[in-house]
UniProtKB/TrEMBL annotation:
The keyword Iron-sulfur does not apply. InterPro entries: Ceramide_glucosylTrfase, Nucleotide-diphossugar_trans. This is ceramide glucosyltransferase. Belongs to the glycosyltransferase 2 family. It comes from the Eukaryota. It is a multi-pass membrane protein. It is found in: Membrane. Its main location: membrane. Signal peptide: none annotated. Keywords: Glycosyltransferase, Membrane, Transferase, Transmembrane, Transmembrane helix. It is an enzyme of class 2 (transferase).
Length: 355
């Protein structure tokens, strides 16, 4: 519909291509990609199966044939499970055009709203007690994702970019292909698991900036469980510690509970023990309020949960933070995609088990 409107106004249509990079034909996305290609034959699309091994990073290996075959100056990497709003790509391009030294535009990781009414009806009809409990559990996990990515993760992500620190997330990223090739291309980052961070570092060393788009990356993954949530956060902590060892000290300090108790002990030392509880109460309320405001700002509309649901998931997330951190520190191995890898200092990986 958009292209029809543009054609009627005699505007030039943008030049673009869609490159689908899949591991195998058994991937559920393969049939969908084929149907889309058949439905829109005039759109320049290609499907790449199997990837090409250029390093240990499975994502780099999977994308490499598409990267080599790409023919335009701008590359948009969009992971599976990312929902793009209608004008999200336009916004990313406009962000890149603001300055001549911008070569990388990323989106703040967030979550897409989910309408659970049909799932609820199906579950109620199927098996009332068991399925209602499962539905409530799934809702809590979804809200937990929402609270984490809209609060703790966005807080650090936005603050890092405000201070011009490199903090790039590759789940939705627009970049200049010629700058990427100046930095060695995707092959250069095949030895790192956090290729997005090192790609941002390479761009910065080459004299280019990376900025954040005004619209967040809406994660829409079907597999949302408490285990996958914990493993994902644990993996990111391991990567940060391996890349920047000093974060082993900074990581727990940035969390609300640890900072609250340190602040309360300081207040107790300065003003007496009677000042500790009021400080704790004020600090928790203030921190939760700031996180709620940040989530509301990122959502830019009606939130899919109530304030009481937010508080429950916020407290649960804060209580989980330190145990996940300890788990990440004690086990440096990472299981991701089709292999298990050992992290080395500096962010490089060694294979332990690959399939």
């Amino acid at each position: 519909k958009i292209f029809k409107k543009i054609s009627k106004k005699n505007f030039f249509l943008p030049s673009f291509e869609l490159l689908f990079c899949l591991y195998s034909r058994q991937d559920p996305a393969y049939d969908l990609a084929q149907r889309l290609c058949a439905k829109y034959p005039k759109v320049d699309t290609r499907i790449f199966i199997g990837g090409q091994r250029v390093g240990l990073n499975p994502k780099i290996n999977n994308m490499f044939p598409g990267y080599v075959a790409s023919k335009y100056s701008h590359l948009l990497i969009s992971d599976q499970g990312i929902y793009m709003r209608q004008n999200a790509l336009t916004d990313m391009v406009l962000c890149m055009l603001e300055r001549t030294d911008i070569a990388l535009v990323t989106q703040t990781p967030f979550c897409k709203d989910r309408n659970g009414i049909w799932a609820a009806l199906e579950q109620i009809v199927n098996n009332i007690c068991k399925k209602i409990l499962q539905f409530v559990k799934n809702k809590i996990i979804f809200f937990l994702f929402y609270v984490y990515f809209g609060g703790a993760h966005s807080r650090i992500y936005l603050a890092s970019h405000a201070f011009r620190f490199v903090c790039s997330t590759g789940m939705s990223a627009l970049m200049l292909k010629d700058v990427l090739e100046q930095c060695g291309g995707f092959r250069q980052f095949g030895g790192f698991l956090a290729e997005d961070y090192f790609l941002g570092q390479a761009f910065a060393r080459a004299g280019y900036r990376n900025v954040i788009s005004h619209m967040p990356a809406l994660q829409n993954s079907a597999n949302t469980s408490l285990f996958t949530f914990q493993e994902r956060i644990c993996r990111w902590i391991k990567l940060r510690i391996a890349m920047l060892p000093h974060t082993i000290i900074l990581e727990p300090v940035q969390e609300c509970i640890f900072a609250s108790f340190v602040g309360a002990l300081s207040f107790g030392y300065l003003f007496g023990q009677q000042a500790m509880f009021p400080f704790l109460a004020f600090h928790f309320i203030y921190w939760a309020t700031c996180d709620f405001i940040l989530i509301k700002t990122l959502q830019n509309g009606q939130l899919p949960f109530s304030i009481s649901q937010f508080l429950f998931c916020w407290i649960l997330r804060e209580l989980m933070a330190f145990p996940i951190f300890v788990k990440a520190v004690l086990n440096p191995h990472i299981g991701w995609r089709f292999g298990t890898y050992q992290l080395c200092w500096g962010g490089r990986i060694k294979p332990m088990k690959e399939s």
